[in-house]
Amino acid sequence: EVIIMSRKNLILLIVLFITVSIAFWMYTRNHASSIAENEFTQFAVTDTAQIQKIFIADHDGNKALLERNSDSRLWKLNGKYLAREDAINNLLQAIHRVRVRGNVANTARDNMMKIMATSGKKVEIYTHDPEEPVKVYYIGPNTPDHCGTVMLLELDGEKSPEPYICHME
After folding, report:
1. Cα→Cα distances 169→97, 101, 127, 160, Å
2. How many CB atoms lie within 10 A of CB 13?
3. How far is Cα 69 from Cα 75, in angstroms, rounded to an integer?
4. Is the pLDDT of residue 33 over 60?
5. Is 87 strand, coil or helix?
């Protein structure tokens, strides 16, 4: 059976297709640009060679201070032990490559904030000023698909009002 479309229906179908295409383009453009322009989504440190110190703590009182040895490329853990070079390289690579994958769903936002406040890890990254971190991450749980981690960024003592799903590109 051959379906013959009238000229009026064909024009209507073309207009509908164009409208949906424009709406989709505008939605993706605005969504991507609003995340990219938000300072609280800039988790990555582009020049990891500038990082001098990384402090990691959890709510159980466990703490790790990693400091770059000024006269070599080695790092010290808690001022006593030499850190494994491969572990440091993995950590620096993660800090360099971390990107926002998307927003935490509004329905899960409050729950994620509670989880991060009670069981998240805090990571402070220092570059030139040993007293003021350039970035502070609060790291929460993985996403259910294990393709992302819920994170929150603090800049200059101000925490982001929203957590984000982050991943490594």
Report:
1. 6, 9, 23, 22
2. 11
3. 5
4. no
5. helix
Beta bridge partners of 122: 57, 138
User: Quick check: 75 pLDDT over 70?
Assistant: yes
Backbone φ and ψ of 84, nearest 5°: -65, 130
Closest CA to 75 of 96, 92, 62: 92
Confidence class for position 9, pLDDT limits 50, 70, 90: confident
Q: What are phi and psi of 16, to 5 degrees?
A: -60, -45
Q: Please report, for residues 7, 86, 109, the alpha-carbon distance to residue 67 in angstroms, rounded to integers and kept in the order given.
A: 72, 15, 34
Q: Are 50 and 128 in contact (CB under 8 A)?
A: yes
Task: Check residue 36 and report its DSSP letter.
Answer: H
Beta strands in 30-120, from DSSP E residues, in sequence order: 53-57, 63-68, 75-77, 81-82, 98-103
Which two tokens mark 92? Answer: 């620096």
For residue 94, count CB atoms less than 10 angstroms from its CB and return exposed for 0-12, middle for 13-18, buried for 19 or more: middle
Strand, coil or helix: 18: helix
Q: pLDDT value at position 6?
A: 74
SS3 state of residue 145: coil
The pTM assigned to this predicted structure is 0.75
Smallest Cα–Cα separation from 78: which of 95, 62, 90? 62
